[in-house]
Amino acid sequence: MRRIKLVVSYDGTAYCGWQLQPNGVTIEEVLNQALSSLLKEDIQVIGASRTDSGVHAMGNVAVFDTESRIPGDKICFALNQRLPDDVRIQASEEVPLTFHPRKANCVKTYEYKILNRKIDMPLQRLYSYFCYFNLDLEKMQKAASYLIGEHDFKSFCTVRTQAEETVRTIYSLDITKVNDLITIRISGSGFLYNMVRIIAGTLVKIGMGVYPPEKMEEILEEKNRAAAGPTIPARGLTLVSLEYEKELAPYLEGENKHWHYVLDQRNVPEKGLAYLTIERCEPEELDGVLRRVIHQAYRNGAKRVFVRDTFGEEGSICGYYRLRRQPETEEGWLEAVYEGEHR
């Protein structure tokens, strides 16, 4: 058995999103059918990002398993001959069977385009959101700066989300304008359901002068979907790329006004050891920080995770883990021991 990775681009206009749906054609369905026909096997792809109806992609990622001996880098050429004109595989390659596109660490980048002029342009209608009102780019840029870093983005997530955790990290958020076209480009560790479209909708309100730029920080802190702007149409959104981590970062750091931590992963590759130091943390946020970061360390390959006992209490439960003082544990540290059931 082999696992093949695909980089998929598509015009999402005619599709009901990525994920299989009973009431319409989806990108996943089209890929499954084309691959099954090509390889004479029942193929089910696993996608990295389940884009919504009408959302486009330049570089979504999917994998599938096959017994075929066709070279991985040749599959894209054969597959493209069986796909409709609005779906194309940009690259294909064989990857380890352990690679999972939704579980591997990566940086996701999206762009949202806004056509900002007095009269709509028909040629842009499928790939941008038209806004008649003049948008103040400087105000939008200032507002965007409040979202950089690790935050709880509950205000920017649909109330129908199935996500248990709403903390995400935004690495960059740039807003530029060329002629009449405004581009919001955002890169992060991951995004909640409708998060980019809600952020874009809120930035539009700020650009129109409905809110001052400082309102963005208030919305973030409120952790209430009703506080943010509208979810603007899907047609302006494109998934640009997913850049997967080639080697484990030696440190992970998360910092905002509520918490600051450093996860030392330097010994994970060789010894399987990770060390979490909480520099500061508000009491009501501590459980969440411990739960998230301990889980991430184990997901990154750590076999044992230690927490400085200045911010951890022996016997505390952090999601699937309990903090314990082991006989061989260094002084000042507690080990996060896996205990199974989520609590």
Automatic annotation (TrEMBL):
<feature type="domain" description="Pseudouridine synthase I TruA alpha/beta">
    <location>
        <begin position="7"/>
        <end position="101"/>
    </location>
</feature>
<feature type="binding site">
    <location>
        <position position="110"/>
    </location>
    <ligand>
        <name>substrate</name>
    </ligand>
</feature>
<dbReference type="InterPro" id="IPR020097">
    <property type="entry name" value="PsdUridine_synth_TruA_a/b_dom"/>
</dbReference>
<protein>
    <recommendedName>
        <fullName>tRNA pseudouridine synthase A</fullName>
        <ecNumber>5.4.99.12</ecNumber>
    </recommendedName>
</protein>
<dbReference type="InterPro" id="IPR020094">
    <property type="entry name" value="TruA/RsuA/RluB/E/F_N"/>
</dbReference>
<feature type="domain" description="Pseudouridine synthase I TruA alpha/beta">
    <location>
        <begin position="143"/>
        <end position="245"/>
    </location>
</feature>
<dbReference type="InterPro" id="IPR020103">
    <property type="entry name" value="PsdUridine_synth_cat_dom_sf"/>
</dbReference>
<feature type="active site" description="Nucleophile">
    <location>
        <position position="52"/>
    </location>
</feature>
<keyword id="KW-0819">tRNA processing</keyword>
<dbReference type="Pfam" id="PF01416">
    <property type="entry name" value="PseudoU_synth_1"/>
</dbReference>
<dbReference type="GO" id="GO:0160147">
    <property type="term" value="F:tRNA pseudouridine(38-40) synthase activity"/>
</dbReference>
<dbReference type="GO" id="GO:0031119">
    <property type="term" value="P:tRNA pseudouridine synthesis"/>
</dbReference>
<dbReference type="InterPro" id="IPR020095">
    <property type="entry name" value="PsdUridine_synth_TruA_C"/>
</dbReference>
<comment type="subunit">
    <text>Homodimer.</text>
</comment>
<comment type="similarity">
    <text>Belongs to the tRNA pseudouridine synthase TruA family.</text>
</comment>
<dbReference type="GO" id="GO:0003723">
    <property type="term" value="F:RNA binding"/>
</dbReference>
<dbReference type="InterPro" id="IPR001406">
    <property type="entry name" value="PsdUridine_synth_TruA"/>
</dbReference>
<comment type="function">
    <text>Formation of pseudouridine at positions 38, 39 and 40 in the anticodon stem and loop of transfer RNAs.</text>
</comment>
<keyword id="KW-0413">Isomerase</keyword>
